[in-house]
């Protein structure tokens, strides 16, 4: 029913429609990467080093003669994998923390929420940077670092929602018919906070993509020769004057992905929580 | 100071010298003890005092932060006011779109675009580097302009949203109608009457943005090859120069805490209701 409503709305809401289509394209290209790309992402060819975009190489080639189009498409695979895994982990852990501390309250809640506040006070990019620096730069640690920095946001969000829902009559009714705390949390509270969490998770994928590409740009993410948008932009720095296509294409894909997830999140939020839209105008 | 080509004995001597043979708790205790005395230890790479290492690169970052913050505040407040006054017009919509871009674009991508545009295509601004201000002020500002624009644009994007929404709230209130009917010029009304009353949330955000300015400058310095705190941090991370990394982390933490405190005080002065409410609450 939610899906039907979404499709129905998307025809009246061009932003929702366009951003969904863009995300679908990026996701599809990530999944089908080996099928749509004509070359291997790490295949070097010294004959076509730094050649401009052409029919054979749509986005040109880099300093090792690798096909930029292929690498950009594989880069979307990496970015999405990292971002979605990190956000999913953060949503699950943050959600559990949020529901528990919102439902039970008390001193446990007070301690948890202070810890979360402290984590939010430090810029998440710097926190992730320090975590990767301690753990060592690789993809697994990158996911770990990004999801750790996102947990407090979901914990705070879920906690606030649960705390306000907990006083509502349907929770009282649940208790009255003898439902266990576990049952109330899973079957009564979770379905009510889920849409909001989903919306913020969508927007957070954009943040996670920015974090992933920024850390990769600094050399703290995926290590070469794994194709990553951020890494490609670092490697292209020496060729800005000679081969601008090395920077432009990965950058455009990065930008479109981030903006699409942001826009989708915004339009979903307006649907799920119309109050926010009104206060925004 | 430390190289890969050291014998086992030499390494052991160095380990003892730096105290790496001690348990972590002891090392941490010693580090804390030294901080109180203003000693952040010695860089493993250069052998210099960490305080010296940091103070050497601070000017480059401060210049970027101040310049960028200046552009950000000016641009953010300007865009925010214009878009609040011209609410729902094309101007408002396009300005809000620009702000949306500013929030969505990673700094390193915007920086790359600006280098491509101003340094590669038009060749009017340098692509990076750093010139000390006292040596050549004009060249120093020219080198800082692009990185400061990137930093400022991202900051303005966040700021303009808050300025817009708090200005919209204020503009509806009665005392502004009075100011208008008195025949005060529009600029006086907007800047003196409206902005002053909208200032509390704006100041809070600017304070929060200090943290953002710092994390932004880490990446921007890398893009524009600017020898500041950010580049020192990244280099030290790769070289496992722990004392320097610890020193910079501590510095960042101190800056965040101090700015948050200052912002709270300023808010109380700007809007006496804040201080009053807290006193009544207790």
Describe the structure.
The complex is a heterodimer of chains A (281) and B (282). Chain A has one domain: Orthogonal Bundle (MetI-like fold), CATH 1.10.3720. In chain A, α4 (68-104) packs parallel to α7 and α9 runs parallel beside α10 (229-235). Chain A is built from twelve helices and no strands. By secondary structure, chain A is an all-alpha fold. Chain A is elongated. The mean pLDDT of chain A is 84. Chain A has helices spanning 2-10, 14-31, 33-36, 68-104, 106-121, 124-135, 139-165, 169-176, 181-217, 229-235, 245-272, 274-280. Chain B is 78% helix and 0% strand. Chain B has helices spanning 8-18, 24-36, 50-85, 90-104, 107-121, 137-171, 174-181, 186-197, 199-223, 229-238, 242-270, 272-281. The termini of chain B are far apart. The chains are: A mainly alpha (281), B mainly alpha (282).
Tag the structure with descriptive keywords:
heterodimer; A: 281 residues; MetI-like fold; 0% strand; B: mainly alpha; 12 helices
Quick overview of this protein structure:
Chain A is 75% helix and 0% strand. Chain A is mainly alpha-helical and 281 residues long.
């Amino acid at each position: 029913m939610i899906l039907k409503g979404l499709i129905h709305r998307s025809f009246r809401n061009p932003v929702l429609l366009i951003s969904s289509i863009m995300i679908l394209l990026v996701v599809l290209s990530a999944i089908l990467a080996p099928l749509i790309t004509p070359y291997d992402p790490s295949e070097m060819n010294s004959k076509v080093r730094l050649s401009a975009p052409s029919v054979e190489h749509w986005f040109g080639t880099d300093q090792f003669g690798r096909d930029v189009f292929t690498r950009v498409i594989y880069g979307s695979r990496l970015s999405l994998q990292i971002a979605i895994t990190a956000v999913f982990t953060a949503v699950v852990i943050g959600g559990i923390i949020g529901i528990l501390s919102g439902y039970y309250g008390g001193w446990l809640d007070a301690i948890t929420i202070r810890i979360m506040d402290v984590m939010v006070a430090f810029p998440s990019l710097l926190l992730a940077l320090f975590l990767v620096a301690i753990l060592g730069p690789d993809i697994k640690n990158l996911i770990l670092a990004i999801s750790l920095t996102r947990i407090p946001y979901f914990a705070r969000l879920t906690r606030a929602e649960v705390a306000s829902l907990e006083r509502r009559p349907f929770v009282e009714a649940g208790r009255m018919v003898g439902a266990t705390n576990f049952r109330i949390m899973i079957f009564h509270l979770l379905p009510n906070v889920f849409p909001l969490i989903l919306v913020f998770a969508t927007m957070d994928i954009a943040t996670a993509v920015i974090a992933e590409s920024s850390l990769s740009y600094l050399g703290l993410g995926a290590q070469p020769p794994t194709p990553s948008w951020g890494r490609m932009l670092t490697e292209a720095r020496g060729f800005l004057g000679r081969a601008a296509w090395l920077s432009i294409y990965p950058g455009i894909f990065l930008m479109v992905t981030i903006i699409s997830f942001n826009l989708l999140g915004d339009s979903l939020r307006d649907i799920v929580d119309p109050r926010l839209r009104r206060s925004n105008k | 100071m430390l190289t890969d080509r050291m014998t086992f004995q030499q390494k052991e001597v160095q380990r003892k010298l730096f105290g790496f043979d001690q348990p972590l708790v002891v090392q941490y205790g010693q580090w804390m003890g030294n901080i109180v005395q203003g000693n952040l230890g010695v860089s493993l790479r250069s052998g210099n005092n960490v305080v010296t290492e940091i103070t050497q690169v601070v000017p480059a970052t401060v210049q970027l932060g101040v310049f960028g913050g200046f552009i950000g505040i000016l641009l953010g407040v300007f865009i925010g006011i214009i878009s609040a006054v011209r609410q729902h017009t094309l101007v408002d919509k396009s300005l809000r779109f620009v702000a949306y871009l500013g929030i969505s674009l990673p700094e390193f991508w915007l920086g790359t675009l600006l280098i491509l545009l101003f340094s590669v295509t038009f060749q009017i601004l340098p692509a990076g580097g750093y010139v000390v201000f006292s040596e050549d002020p004009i060249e120093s500002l020219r080198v800082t302009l692009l990185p400061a624009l990137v930093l400022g644009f991202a900051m303005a994007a966040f700021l303009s949203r808050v300025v817009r929404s708090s200005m919209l709230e204020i503009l509806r209130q009665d005392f502004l109608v009075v100011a208008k009917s008195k025949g005060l010029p529009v600029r006086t009304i907007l800047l003196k009457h409206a902005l002053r009353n909208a200032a509390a949330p704006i100041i809070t955000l600017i304070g929060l943005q200090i943290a953002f300015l710092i994390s932004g400058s880490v990446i921007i310095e890398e893009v524009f090859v600017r020898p500041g705190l950010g580049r020192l941090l990244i280099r030290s991370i790769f070289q496992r120069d722990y004392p320097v990394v610890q020193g910079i982390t501590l510095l960042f933490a101190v800056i965040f805490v101090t700015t948050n405190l200052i912002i709270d005080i300023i808010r109380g002065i700007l809007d006496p209701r804040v201080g009053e409410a807290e006193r009544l609450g207790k």
